[in-house]
Amino acid sequence: MSSITNDFCQALGLALPIVQAPMAGSQASAMAIAVGGAGGLGSLPTATLSLDALERELEALRQAHLPAYNVNFFVHQQPTADLRREAIWQKLLAPYYAELDIAAHDVAAGPARAPFSHAAADIVERYQPRVISFHFGLPDDALMARVRSWGSQIWSSATTVEEARWLEAKGVDAIIAQGLEAGGHRGVFLGFDGDRPDFSQQLTSMALIPQIVAAVRVPVIAAGGIANAQGVRAALALGARAVQVGTAYLLCDEATTSAVHRAALVSPEASRTALTNLFTGRPARGIVNRLMRELGAINSAVPTFPLAAGALAPLKAKAEAQGKGDFSALWAGQNVSGCQTISAALLTRQLGAALSLTSPR
Ligand SMILES: Cc1cc2nc3c(=O)[nH]c(=O)nc-3n(C[C@H](O)[C@H](O)[C@H](O)COP(=O)(O)O)c2cc1C
Fold this sequence. Notes:
By secondary structure, the protein is of the alpha/beta class.
């Protein structure tokens, strides 16, 4: 295995400065193990896992004996259901329920995505991953202290320089600079108004990476729009110590990406992505589909994250059974050119090809 790396990656035993982005719903330990085996850092997303599933996936990672892997958690507050808002949302969806012949009582109750918790920490502490990454900020001090006590590195995403400074002040070990191009949920957490998200102050990778690198002393990992080795080199040239790549891995053999999502990624529609809060209640980038076109990608009637997903679940299931992604979150970044139906190990090696870090930092 060719090895091209820097002190940040060496400390984690990585041969390549490539982090496979955690992608809840689209991959699990199999992809993380393949990426780790190729010299990158594989990630396990946990937001949609039950505690039992979390334990199973961690056990699989342990048995792979990788030098390092990353376990990723969302850190939102669990909201209490707002019945008035839920009613407005269900009214908006009512015509679709009628069209697909779904009864209102089929609506699943409860949140579909769980934040980091002491119950999850009880399981994770038996595995002590080298890296724990967070999205939407950081957990409370007690949970942070637990993670620190295991010796795990703590990473989190920043979408602005201000967020990066906030994370550094809280003592994170690395910051993931998430450019506006990125697929999936925006990690935005400071000054965030869920009803009226303002993306006008969110920066693209080219502007965000060097400004975060200049603003903080901790290593910066670039995320958003990186799809091939040239993109990796560009991010490193801007001062990033590693890159976190998501979208490009979505068609890999180990991905659990659904059939409708895979079809959308290889269709001409994939060139049209937008930020939408429709599917979960928080803005995320996905391929524009029927629901986004008809309700508007950002709609203030949507219940608070992550409750929006409940009422959509039966629509999604029924439409997907008919081969349609009309009600599915088709997460993708602005650059789908790196998506290939190959193994995640090969993609990792391709992303890391021909790197020359002339001045390891
Ligand atoms: C399908 C998909 C799911 C994602 N899920 C998560 C997640 O569970 N946790 C997380 O921290 N980031 C998640 N992200 C965001 C990635 O961490 C990363 O910021 C993004 O993929 C980088 O941009 P790119 O998609 O252009 O490579 C997801 C991205 C995608 C495409």
